[in-house]
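Before going further, learn to read the protein records used in this course. A complete example follows; check for yourself that the lines match position by position.
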Amino acid sequence: MVVILDHQVFDVIWLCINQFLKILKSKLLIFKIINCLIIQIISLLKSINYKKLMFKLYVYFNTTMFIANLEFFTSSLYDDIEEWIKNLVHNMHHQGRIVHLRNNIYKQDNCIVLQCQIPESDSISAISENRWAKKLKNKEVEIRVKCLGKALNSPSLCCCGQTEFYILLGSEDIPLLCGSCGDVVPLYRIPPTYEPDPSFYDVDCWNKENLAWSDIEFYSSHEAIAQKELSDLGSRLNKNALELRSKIEFFSGKDCYYFLEELRENVSFETAKKCSGCGREWLLEQPLLEYYDFKCDHCKILSRLLPPINFNQTRKPHMSD
């Protein structure tokens, strides 16, 4: 009886040793796999071009506009629905949902594609609710939106939950900025300023005129006339801007300041000047948003000391250079 018990104990011990060796082998295999993975990760990290990676991250997190395709599926000829498509696109532009219209429009099979730039990826997601889209639907035209990706060199979008005030200024993109962070604010985030057809048609018209005067200032021989129109607070352009500023303030319930692009050549003389509207002191101790040197809370206008223009510098250096 004792011998049998000894054999049983020996078998149990031997079985336990085998199980332990099997577990040890499996753990060693796991360790080998982990070691191979670590070696692969290290070699991968060594091969990464960190400059390109940082640029891609910069582009992803700092560009906010998007490129999108408007696709119109129809069996009709383009000439039959061209006017309706143009009315739809221009209406969405006046609503601030389309920033730029690109010239490349083409037809592929039974689909007409028009490319545009939009503030956010979902800026035109509700395009089917537009009155012109409904008219196209009656003509058996199906509209789809395809977001292609982020637009390079586009301004940052405001992410503030609540802004302190707005800033109206002429811009190639969106003429409204957040007074808290200085980034652009899509117009559709505030109530429409143009009542006949709820949109921002009046803001868009003023902005186009402002850009036209800027082009005249830089690219024509009528520089003095353009500078007066842009910098004189009493000019028709700036009077319209002040009226729009008041509208934005009224409809949004937030203060709105207008950026006045005054010509300043002598810095020491200009810093001593008073507000162009009321004659009050308006030089700030520290620039607002590191950009605006002058601020008048009475007239609700901003301005800055413009740096000397270097005509030899054709563009700003980019991070990818």
